[in-house]
Amino acid sequence: MLLSFELKVTTINNLSGHWRGENLRYIQVRNVDKDKVIKILDGEIIKVYHHKCDDGWEFDILVREISSVQNDRLKQYFKNGFCNFDYMIDNIIDCQSCVISRK
C-alpha cells in the first residue's frame, strides 16, 4: 500500500521566524505492508505525527494512504526530498510510537 508522508514545520527556532524552504512542499511516498498501514493510520484518514527536536524546532508529519494516480500527481514534490528528516518516516513505519502522535 502507498503511504504519503508530508512534512510541515510547526515551530521555527530562529530569530527571523522563517526558514529557507518554507514555501516548498516536502512529500515522500513509501510502499508499506498492509499490517503496518493499519497500525500507522490507526483508523484515521489522515494521521498526524508530531516530532520535537532538541533545538526547539517542531514538525508535523501528515500520513495518508494514496492511490497510484495520486502518487503520480505528487511526484512533482518528490524532488524537494524530506529535508534530511527521512528518519522520522522510518520511525513512524517501524515503531508508530517513536514519534509522538498528536491528534
Describe this structure as you would to a colleague.
The protein has a five-stranded antiparallel beta sheet with strand order 2-1-4-3-5, with helices on both faces. It is built from three helices and five strands. Strand 3 (46-52) and strand 4 form a beta hairpin. It has 103 residues and is an alpha+beta fold. 15% of the residues are buried. The two termini are 23 Å apart. 28% of the residues lie in helices and 33% in strands. The longest helix has 11 residues, at 68-78. It is globular, with a radius of gyration of 14 Å. It has helices at 34-41, 68-78, 86-95; strands at residues 2-11, 26-31, 46-52, 58-66, 100-101.
Write a compact overview of the structure shown.
This protein has 103 residues and is of the alpha+beta class.
Topology overview:
Layout: E1 2-11, E2 26-31, H1 34-41, E3 46-52, E4 58-66, H2 68-78, H3 86-95, E5 100-101
Antiparallel strand pairs: 1-2, 1-4, 3-4, 3-5
Could you name the key traits of this structure?
globular, alpha+beta, 103 residues, five-stranded antiparallel β-sheet
Shape: globular
Spatial strand arrangement across the major sheet: 2-1-4-3-5
Calculate Rg over CA atoms.
14 Å
Distance between the termini: 23 Å
Order of helices and strands: EEHEEHHE
Largest sheet: 5 strands, antiparallel
Structural class: alpha+beta
- By DSSP, the count of extended strands is 5
Low-pLDDT residue spans: none
